[in-house]
Amino acid sequence: MNTNNKTGQSTGIKIKNNWFAIVVSLLFLLFPLVIKNNYFIDVAFFFGIYTLLGLSLNIVLGEVGLFDLGHMGFAAIGAYTTAILNTSFGIPIFVLLPISAIAAAIFAYLVTSPIIHLRGDYLCIVTIGMGEIVRLTLINNPFGITGGPNGVFGIDFPSIGNLLIIDNSVKFYYFIWVAVGLTVLALIHLQDSRIGRAWNCIREDIIAAEASGIDVRYYKLLAFVLGAALAGVAGSIYASKLMIVSPESFSFMESCMLFCIVLIGGMGSIPGILIGAAAISLFPEIFQTFAQYRMLIFGAALVLMMMFRPGGVWPRQRGKIQTESILVKTGKSEI
Amino acid sequence: MKLVIEQLLNGLTIGSFYALIALGYSMVYGVMKLINFAHGDLFALGSYLGYTLLVMGTAYVTSTLGIWGGMIAAILVAAIGTGVMGLLVERIAYRPIYPTGRLPAVVSALGVSIFLQNAIMVVWGARPQAYTSDVIPSYMLNIGGLRITVLQILILLLSFLLMGVLYYIVQKTTFGAAIRASALDRETAALMGININLIIFFIFALGPALGGTAGVMVGIYYRRISFIMGWNYGLKAFTATILGGIGNIPGAMIGGLILGVLEMLGSTYISTPYKDVFVFLVLILVLIFRPRGILGEKVAEKV
Amino acid sequence: MKRIKNIFIVLVIVTLCLSVNALAQKDPVVIGLQGPLTGSAAVEGEMAKQCVETAALMINEKGGILDGRMIEIELVDDAAQPRAGALAAMKLVSMREVVASIATYGSSVTQPASDIYEKFNKVNIAYGATVTGLSERGLNYFFRTCGRTDTQGIFFAEEVVPYFGASRVAILHDNTSFALGLAEEARKALLDAGEAELVYFDAITPGESDYTVPLTRLRETNPEVFYFTGYFSEAGLIIRQAREIGIDAVFVGGDAAINEDFIRIAGLEYAAGCYMTQEALIQYFTNPEAMEFKEKYQATYGTLPSSPWSVYAGDALMVLAEAIDKTGSTDSDVLVDYLKNEMEEFPSITGPIGFDEKGDRVGTGINLYVVNDDGSYSIVER
Fold first, then answer.
1. What number is the ipTM of this complex?
2. Taking the domain A15-329, which CATH number applies?
């Protein structure tokens, strides 16, 4: 894949590591065929969900640098849209995937339009508030449609007639990772496009961006809407796997975990998100034996991570010409 | 009418707890531009320290010092303990990370918060604990049909006293001016000869100490403490900070009080489960129409 | 390049750890236990673990089952989260040596978990999931040793309210799965009974400290009976705050509201005179199994479990051990058949247990208890 720009310089992901990407893709492809244990496959499935969610937050936080700590709210909208429409009207899951994405996107547009101009930390608290509002409203079962604390259950498996029915761990695994793969391809192209560059420009220096004629408000909103749509898709797939959605899955702590995924992986870095998602989703399972001390270790690990690799495990690589690569390597980014 | 006053007092009481915790957030944020997520858990730690002193060592403490003496001792122990912990946290988890930027610091703060919360759970157990009746004075007053406990009055007085002292220090003394200067522009303040390390020491010791004091007071007033209380109170206090104008110390106090009263209003007139939704909505509206918060200063944008 | 190498090393180490974890052991009979060991419900998970281990100790000391095989517990944390619950269930299901599982606490966590157990034909017994709908899904392998909220709600409306001769009832819950379920069942039963009027129905937010505002509103509706269906942590605060602002109504707690911790948090002066609709209060049980259990538990942990659910987990273990021993088999279908058709009035810790066709427990009585002035409980004769 050629990601060189017009002057022949390398941008975006370094594809001279092409062979590495192929090896990793093969690993993912072969994984369930080698490891036959359903538990591990399920863990890998949720790893995929977190990756998708991490990628969706990456658009908002990683590319544009918007402080979003309520991102799970968008996933909740997607998940509940799927759950409610499927259990009440029997609409098939595959049809509901884009519908959930659109629902989340519309929601994002409506709630972020009035506040998109807010500065970093204020945006932070507002997004926290939004996430909480979504969760609290869901618990309170407005109009009797969200099922309150018990949530909505009885969600179908995704299926296209009798041809393709995704009903076991292995199939779900491939389903989510195909979705992740497609998303990654789309995002790589986005990174390279006008939109992606406008986003990065806004992140690095918003005033210069504005002065260069970039419609900051439009691009910020676009980021939120796209990020929300993607999160909605993730929520939708999650709902059909678990067959139940309930408000606890979309708490503030979960939004914080997404935040950590982007930061740990490296802002704007797609391979980094993968690693971050792995860390966040696999960590609790690996450390099951430590029981109560698990979260203790996790908290300490977060601190240590930031101490030694504040730019993330796999920071975004940029072309050598650009001086900002030095800033990226040390993880410095002014908001 | 009597009802309204009663509810107002309740709102102010819980508001003053939010205010005390919010002060810590505001001070740290103002100078360091860091959202100290661990602050809420330091508050919880304070209440557990007070609990350890009073309930677990009860015979000794209360018999030597009496109930009131015991409370004062608990507050002192909690304040000192959390102050020390706050300094430790700053030194270990934040100082190495400041130079690299704001976002890594946020993740680090989250990490510390998770660590502290679970550390409390491991040390004191997952069961909620209670300040037992024998360590708490319980005189009831009846003023014109209003039922108030002496405790409530004392707590309100103590909170306002602490806030007043802090307000005085920050607004009226030279040292306070130094703090405000550092909040405005840390680098320039350092260039002007202000001892930034001293400022940092002050905010990371005093902020958590105030939070720890609030912790003991919450323990005494409501009696039940649990290892997850830090998260809940922390979020509310952070909201109060923003409401009042982040980085602004009198703003944090007012924000806290207003938040307490808002919660009370929401719970009374809308519905108890939706009160948090109401509070967040108000916050969002305030931020849309008055983004700097109630008392925040307008920061000029250099163009 | 170095980074890639590092990542690979980490992956290798991780895989090794995981495989060590999964080494199967052949001799003991392994029963899975799923519960919240971390998170906001950590206290329940911890107690459930302690109860199950005590029950296992009781059985192992007597020589185990199936001719000398010891019982071993495989513990998995689900943090009271549905997703983690599904993963935990999947983990236990994937471990071939795990015969059956005791799972779990929290109705919204038990839902996806039981779906997974059902899919893989594994017996699972819930110990802290009382939402009625759970056993109405036509599942074959799902059981529970706890009761259902509808029984308790009906008991409240048809027995408790008339006992106090009350005509004005207030119900307060906390929007959690269990409390809401019980509150709704109570409300429905009150409506059906048609005698008393429901004057107040609202929810508080758990985890907070100040409930004076909703309580003041409750006071203004002048109820004669005040039913709180939430947990002991809030109940302790609520009774004290309620009394302090002048609510005189009779206070009745639901299943999860009143225990040692409640008395400690509320203070004896407020706790005395409170009532509760209660299934399994371990302190009250005097049957030989309960006495033995209490003695062993107290000896190891220094106190008694403060919630009914964890004791039900202990019951679940004893039930499973009995089924395996009596049928001589670890096959799920054989066990299901025994549990549903053969097991009758099996003496467990909380009294005689049997199961009906839906997997619900047969043989729990709900009683009205009152807290005495010295902190002990007595049954109120009806």
1. 0.81
2. 1.10.3470
